[in-house]
Amino acid sequence: MEIVLGRDGRARRVETLCQGRLVFRTRRGVRSVERSLVEAIPHGARTILAVGDAEGAVAIAARHLLPEAHVAHLSLDAYEGERARSTCEANGVPVELTVAADLPGTGPDAGMRQDGSQPLWDTILLAGPRESTFLRELVEEAHDALAPGGRLVVAAERSPRSLVSVVKDAFGKADPLQNRAKGASLAGARRTREKRVWKDRGRTLEREVRGLVLTLAVRPGVFGSTGLDAGTRTLVEAIQVPAGGRVLDLGCGTGALGIAAGLLGAGEIVLADSSPRAVALATSNARANGIQKATALLRADLEDLPGPFDLALANPPYFGDFRIARSFVRAAKKNLRPGGHLALVAKAAGEHLEVVRELFPDARLEERGGYGIVLARRS
Predict the structure, then answer these.
(1) Is the same domain home to 181 and 214?
(2) In a domain, 81, yes or no
(3) Could you tell me where the DSSP H helices lie in the chain?
């Protein structure tokens, strides 16, 4: 069975998994975490939940290998959810697709669970994140979402000992699993405990900047776990907020940038992110800081935003190939009113200046304390 990941015309790399039963055609290869999970799909599973698999490869593989099983895919990010949906459709594979902040019936809103309103899974295949605290939380959620005797298989880019330790803390017992894929470790465990084990690792912090005191709830898996990172602080200290204006916070995380703008005189703020966790936090944080006109939106690629805006703020992640930064800049170009401004903070300021100039040729750079702020005006 052939599975194509990515655009068909560019998917030229071929990998054979599961003793030749599956052939993947990709552009860059199957990621080590997903490859590990595909090879470890348990025989005889009846209800399978694949979590955190960016393109849906694990869920599609499970559907092919176990055609009688009910297979669902949970994305913790709307952009990844769109990629998974596109991949499933392109391969003609029916998979139940969901985007959510937490595994079904777990996390802060776990009240609706064991009354039959939420399914309990006999198998969860978890592509573990790099962030240690986030990984621990998801492993605990997986425990609570499993049926008694249900099995977790988790792959992550960390040492086998470290991964087994995380799983053991939640399940009481865990085993390293043989893994042919390089670059990732694999562990498994069965649910034997009746009680839920999930621990709320959310915190509420107060941070002072520019004479303001921001009250910010934070959670694992959302940028801004320290309340205010240095880049956000640098941008808040530099921005000029138009009195009564509309401000857009691109990739809002906890909402710190937009909330600061609201406290500095903006008339309305819109907070947008692809993470359901971030959108939930930004919503509650805006309320906690007394922002009257604030809207938090879940957007896969910052599409369909309610412009126009007077100011767009961005603190893009420093990893990757500038895809996210470019999506921020495109959204600003599309949604700023004529004369509206973009302010983007970055460590790699020179590279980000070039990215902004692709759509704002007159963009300029201001250096501030090891960071650069790229400023642009829509003509």
Answers:
(1) no
(2) yes
(3) 32-39, 57-65, 78-90, 132-145, 160-171, 230-238, 256-263, 276-288, 323-335, 349-357
